[in-house]
């Protein structure tokens, strides 16, 4: 029985891998073009009101019956088809198979006659994940037509359960998630916690990690503490990044209940709300966005600059943090958090959107003289970091640019730490021979930092 590696080698040697890739690409292009032509025809069907000719009152109803589509899919198709005639450049690129239906749906939320050419060009150069980041803060052209219904509603189900629903703006939502993080910490007790530490995001996460690391002991059977092995800097960094952000899904319910209990047990109205610590990114030309919520319009975020308890990251033209506003206790971990904020708290590899289990990679290896400074660091998820380590991908710098190279010749370039764009393919080896020599088994790497 052949292994996966043996199978991969066999495919490569026979050219079978190339046939498979060509089949995937050609069929994907055909599928996109077919859907585009279907939607163009559907736009005509809707324009001429043909549904009534076939015994239906709406185009969506006819689609659901004729093509056996789910009603939600039918309504979505009609919505997209109605908008295509208003955007000829988008429709032309879509019919040419230049980007997917998912990209078309996403672009339609932001398109206007004035920005159509710019956004279509952007979609042709970026992966979908990077396109979402590029349009962070732009806002939705559809949302602008109606005022958002911010609310908090409570209703009772038939069995007596209480059903809660809410909609908050981006900044209030960030403060809510920060409060949940403190509530999660309260599950382990706040008696030994300085209340000023609760206003510091990094300190809250450190305290939470310490509490979670403590063994659970029956009070009647308390034993002498077992000596703990000192945590390495590498493990501390991994733990810190994996824990970033709001409580994970499994902890959300208990965190909400704890927050309710905290309010009921200590109903105090302070002048400054603790824990509403929010990171805001701003470029030198004034564009702002909220890491972790790229859909938040820039204007909404700007409105909170003077009112929220926040940390403002001012980025220079190279994408490096120039200034960290309202900082406290910033040491190495704080600088690395600034690195994550520059990359929107997610893996920097093109096409990857992982936000947990992030590691730090030295672009110029530490053992080869690379510095542990922001300009030489890049966040990668554990999977993408493994791809670099296993020589399936390679990351290097060329002046202000960061270049991502992948087996097969594909190449992406992040110019001044902006979103990586696909560029001309490369030929020759993935990694220079000198880098391959450094990865030999007899080479001893320095220290235990993630490199």
From TrEMBL:
Keywords: Endonuclease, Hydrolase, Nuclease. It comes from the Bacteria. It holds the Pfam family HNH. Gene3D superfamilies: 1.10.30.50. InterPro entries: HNH, HNH_nuc. GO terms for molecular function: endonuclease activity; nucleic acid binding; zinc ion binding. Residues 211-231, 423-451 are annotated as: Disordered. Residues 334-386 form the HNH nuclease domain. Residues 439-451 have a biased composition (Basic and acidic residues). This is HNH endonuclease. It comes from Corynebacterium mycetoides.
């Amino acid at each position: 029985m052949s292994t996966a590696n043996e199978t991969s080698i066999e495919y490569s040697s026979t050219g079978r891998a190339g046939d498979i890739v060509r089949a995937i690409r050609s069929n994907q292009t055909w599928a996109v073009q077919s859907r585009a032509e279907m939607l163009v025809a559907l736009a005509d069907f809707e324009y001429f009101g043909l549904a009534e000719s076939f015994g239906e009152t709406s185009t969506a109803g006819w689609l659901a019956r004729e093509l056996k589509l789910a009603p939600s899919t039918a309504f979505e198709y009609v919505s997209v088809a109605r908008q295509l005639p208003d955007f000829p450049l988008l429709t032309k690129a879509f019919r040419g198979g230049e980007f997917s239906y998912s990209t078309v749906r996403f672009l339609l939320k932001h398109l206007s006659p004035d920005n159509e050419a710019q956004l279509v060009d952007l979609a042709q150069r970026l992966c979908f994940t990077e396109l979402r980041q590029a349009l962070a803060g732009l806002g939705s052209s559809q949302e602008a037509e109606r005022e958002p219904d911010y609310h908090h509603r409570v209703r009772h189900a038939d069995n007596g359960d209480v059903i809660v629903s809410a909609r908050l703006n981006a900044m209030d939502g960030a403060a809510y998630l920060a409060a949940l993080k403190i509530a999660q910490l309260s599950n382990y007790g706040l008696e030994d916690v300085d209340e000023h530490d609760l206003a510091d995001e990094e300190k809250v996460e450190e305290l939470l990690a310490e509490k979670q690391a403590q063994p659970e002991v029956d009070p009647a059977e308390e034993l002498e503490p077992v000596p703990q092995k000192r945590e390495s800097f590498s493990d501390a960094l991994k733990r810190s990044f994996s824990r970033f952000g709001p409580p994970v899904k499994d902890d959300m319910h208990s965190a909400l209940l704890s927050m309710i209990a905290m309010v009921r047990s200590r109903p105090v109205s302070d002048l400054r709300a603790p824990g509403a610590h929010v990171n805001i990114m701003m470029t030198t030309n004034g564009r702002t966005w909220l890491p972790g919520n790229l859909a938040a319009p820039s204007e909404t975020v700007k409105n909170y600059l003077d009112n929220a308890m926040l940390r403002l990251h001012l980025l220079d033209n190279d994408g490096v943090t120039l200034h960290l506003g309202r900082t406290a206790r910033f040491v190495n971990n704080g600088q690395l958090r600034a690195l994550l904020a520059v990359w929107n708290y997610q893996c920097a590899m093109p096409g990857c959107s992982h936000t947990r289990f992030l590691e730090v990679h030295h672009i110029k290896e530490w053992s080869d003289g690379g510095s542990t400074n922001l300009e030489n660091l890049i966040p990668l998820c554990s999977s993408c970091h493994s791809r670099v380590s296993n020589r399936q991908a390679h990351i290097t710098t060329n002046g202000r640019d960061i270049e991502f190279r992948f087996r097969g010749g594909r190449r992406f370039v992040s110019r001044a730490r902006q979103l990586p764009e696909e560029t001309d393919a490369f030929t020759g080896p993935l990694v220079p021979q000198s880098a391959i020599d450094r990865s030999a088994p007899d080479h001893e790497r320095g220290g235990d930092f993630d490199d």
